[in-house]
Amino acid sequence: MSFEDLNLHPSIIKAINELGYTSPTPIQQQAIPELIQGHDVMASAQTGTGKTAAFMLPALHRLATPTKVQGRGPRILVLTPTRELALQVSDAASKYGKYLSRIKVVSILGGMSYFLQNKLLSQTVDILVATPGRLIDHIQRGRIDFSRLEMLVLDEADRMLDMGFVHDVESIASTTPASRQTLLFSATLDSTIDKIAARLLKSPKRIQVASQRAKLENIEQRLHYVDDLLHKNKLLDHLLRDQSLKQAIVFTATKRDADDLADDLAAQGHEVGALHGDMSQRERTRTLTKLRNGRLRILVATDVAARGIDIADITHVINFDLPKFAEDYVHRIGRTGRAGASGIAVSFASGKDSISLKRIERFTGQRITPSVIPGIEPKFKPRIRQNEGKAQKVPHVVHKRNRSWASNERNSFNHTDSNKNHSHRFERTPSNDSKKRSFRRPNQFNSGIYAESSN
Predict the structure, then answer these.
(1) Number of C-alpha atoms within 13 angstroms, CB side, residue 86?
(2) Are 43 and 51 in contact (CB under 8 A)?
(3) pTM
(4) What is the mean pLDDT of the chain?
(5) Of 306, 311, 257, nearest in space to 289 by CA
(6) CATH classification (class only), 219-440
(7) CATH for the stretch 3-208
(8) How far apart (Å, rounded) are the C-alpha atoms in residues 73 and 126?
(9) Which residues is 128 bridged to in the sheet?
(10) Can you tell me the distance from the alpha carbon of 250 to that of 342, in angstroms, rounded to the nearest whole number?
(11) Which residue windows does the record flag with biased composition (Basic and acidic residues) (predicted)?
(12) Which of 106, 153, 197, 200 has the highest CB neighbour count under 10 A?
């Protein structure tokens, strides 16, 4: 099947042909005809399956026909859980609609200037892409008119629920016309999603092209057991020195850890940046632009980057800390192996992470075979895990380059800080006194010890 077979507007076909798209993905093949016919749709699609085009192409097709309703408000509204995903959707809309006349795409995100957003909203808008919190602010201030709205898209609906946006989403939907077409895209279609869909969608067509237990055949998954933070750092250093690593995302549990680790890597001479929810939108956009332009080789991030980053040159994803939720593991490692390319996903785990590992393996339906690097083997000996009554295979050995750790000790993360009277890298942990910080030695672990509500 070709995109011409989907009966999209010729101007859209021209744009996607220029982008090098040759044939629609399964989610696009099934969703686009239903959406063009005007049906509400709830669809399950894993990351990297082309879901953005699955809803944006029919949305632009609708915009190719002028509306008779007067006003400046948007005809298409897309809600996303994160700023990064919102910017990705906006960029896709601009690319796919470049040959449609007078299509105005506006992003409304937290961290952006209200003055600029007010100016953008005072003009005629065709596609509005927004995060729920900031959009609620503008609605309450009476700055958005939804009288022209024809289509509401809930992108990454499961993530919005996880982040506590369910009431905001329902509140926003209540201000839109009842005649709207509603689309819900999610990595999962569980009972919670079904309840939301029952309240917001009208007799939706249900599409499920990607299994919850996606095989991720093009991503090689590795597991390294670690003894302590120093051991983690040595493993990370070894991985980052691999010449086959073009660009990598290193995921940490908290914002503070992302900053600390990025600082450590920068001190080692790596081209690195941090990405997390405490950064302003300008800082986040600048960091992602550097990553896309190849000016950063390593991005250290919290789960804010687990969705919405689509960069073909990311060859490795490293879970310095395992995620709290198994679903986030799939979205994290989905940052590599994009568009049919191969990728490598490496996870570090301690003895305390056995439950998290079991959840991840149960969710993906795959075993992650432990690997060892000669010279950096763990002292920790995990129990042999059983799989359908059969013992686990012998750990995969990753051959180490011909160099000595002793001769490179100055390059390890446990370097001596000449400005302080200690030679250990300490981890910060929460303290009851906000003005004081307690520290713990590197033999303690950082895998989800404390959580932050916004990444």
Answers:
(1) 29
(2) yes
(3) 0.61
(4) 82
(5) 311
(6) alpha beta
(7) 3.40.50.300
(8) 7
(9) 77, 106
(10) 17
(11) 417-436
(12) 153
Spell 83-102 as b/e; 16+ CB within 10 A means b: bbbbbbbbebbeebbebbee
- DSSP, collapsed to helix, strand or coil, labels residue 357 as helix
C-beta of residue 343 within 8 angstroms of C-beta of residue 314: yes
CA angle 104, 106, 107 (to 5 degrees): 160
CA angle at 211 for the pair 35 and 358, rounded to the nearest 5°:
145
Backbone phi, then psi, for 356, in 5-degree steps? -60, -40
Closest CA to 45 of 177, 193, 214, 280: 214
> What are the distances in angstroms from CA 384 to CA 172, 323, 387, 392?
50, 23, 10, 6
Q: Which residue has the tokens 């992602």?
A: 288
Residues 277 and 455 sit within 8 Å (Cβ to Cβ):
yes
- CA dist 118 → 115, 136, 285, 388, 447 (Å): 5, 14, 20, 59, 41
| Token output for 330 | 């799939």
- The Cα 310–Cα 440 span in angstroms is 36
The tens digit of pLDDT for each residue in 36-84 reads 999 999 998 766 678 899 999 999 999 998 888 888 999 999 999 988 8
Burial of 269 by CB count in 10 Å (0-12 exposed, 13-18 middle, 19+ buried)? exposed
Helices (H), 5-64: 10-18, 26-36, 51-63
The Cα 412–Cα 187 span in angstroms is: 39
The burial class, CB within 10 Å (0-12 / 13-18 / 19+), for 450 is: exposed
Token pair listed for 198: 């029952």
Quick one: CA dihedral 304, 309, 311, 314, positive or negative? positive
Through-space distance between the first and last CA atoms of the chain, rounded to whole angstroms:
40
Widest distance between CA atoms in the chain: 74
If one counts every other C-beta atom within 10 angstroms of the C-beta of residue 113, the result is 10
Return the bridge partners of 301, or none: 251, 275
Q: Where are the domains of the chain?
A: 3-208, 219-440
Phi-psi region of 375 (alpha: psi -120 to 50; beta: other; left: phi over 0): left
Common-topology check for domains 3-208 and 219-440: yes
∠ CA 418-423-426 to the nearest 5 degrees? 110
Contact 76, 150 (CB under 8 A): yes
Of 10, 335, 34, whose CA–CA distance to 183 is shortest? 34
State how far the Cα of 46 lies from the Cα of 257, in Å rounded to an integer: 28
Sequence letter at residue 367: R
